[in-house]
Amino acid sequence: MTRRGLLLFAVLGILWGIPYLLIRVSVEAVSPATLVFARTAIGALLLLPVALSRGRMSAVLRRWRWLLTYTAVEIAVPWLMLSTAEQRITSSLSGLLVAAVPLVGAAISLRGSRRDHLGPPQLAGLLVGVLGVALVLGSDLGGLTASAGAEMAVVVVCYATGPQIIARRLADLPSLQVVAASLAACALFYLPFFVALHPARMPAAGPLAAILTLGVVCTALAFLVMFALIAEVGAVRATVVTYVNPAVAVILGVWVLGEPFRVGMGVGFALILLGSAISTRVSRPRPRGPRCERSEPRVSPG
């Protein structure tokens, strides 16, 4: 990896690791729906002018059904569920659970056209990763409610499914335009909720700064960095950043918010990473022709 690629990788790992902390701070002052609206509206306002100046937005809008499906699966639903869950669980725990996204993505691929490519090593990786998730959950059962656990499960499944929609239905469209249009569509959807649920007075300086940082830095800037990273190192190598985000989330949660960190959480996280690395390696089947399939990118924002 080039020096520029390493720098972009490090920056994106931080930019998508700090949202868990910022979400935890924000939901103390505003509702989850209000937070999702603010984050997507700010991101859309910053990215749409750039996307429109580059053209091809009409091609994106012609694929509006899949665009809206992607928006719901990758942004609208998981960001709401994540914000709602963090009203009751720590940012560290939510970050660790999101580390299971590659595991779920590999499990989903078992039902797809690539199921013959997942052999015994990949299945073993899934089992190792599931054991890691169980250890993480078992380390913080006192703070994890059934509803929060269900919400985080939805987040993980959505984050694992969204990139597959991109890969199979929107891959021929420019990424920046797709993301900008998705953020705008999500903001429009949540606008009525913002009108109905917005706080009666301006949030305090801390939550307000967290909300602005989520929109400007962790959404608009992070997506631009992601596109630059993919251009520099390729989509498949860029997905490794998924393994860095949870570590950043845990460090910030423990350091800034004083959240507890137990040995079981650390061991479970290591098993999740190991299982993800094994299960997402493409097992090369006996060649049937000149064409071979590539791994689908699973880069998911926090």
Describe this protein with a few key phrases.
302 residues, mainly alpha, 0% strand
Q: In the residues, how many domains can be counted?
A: 1
Low-confidence parts: 285-297
Provide a count of the helices: 14
Structural class: mainly alpha
Largest sheet entry: none
Counted beta strands: 0
Globally, the shape reads: globular
Strand content: under 5%
What distance separates the N and C termini? 24 Å
* Cα gyration radius (Å): 19 Å
The ordered string of helix (H) and strand (E) elements is HHHHHHHHHHHHHH
Mean pLDDT: 82
How would you characterize this protein structure?
With 302 residues, this protein is mainly α. The chain has one domain (3-279). Helix content is 73%, strand content 0%. It contains 14 helices and no strands. The model is unreliable at 285-297 (pLDDT under 50).
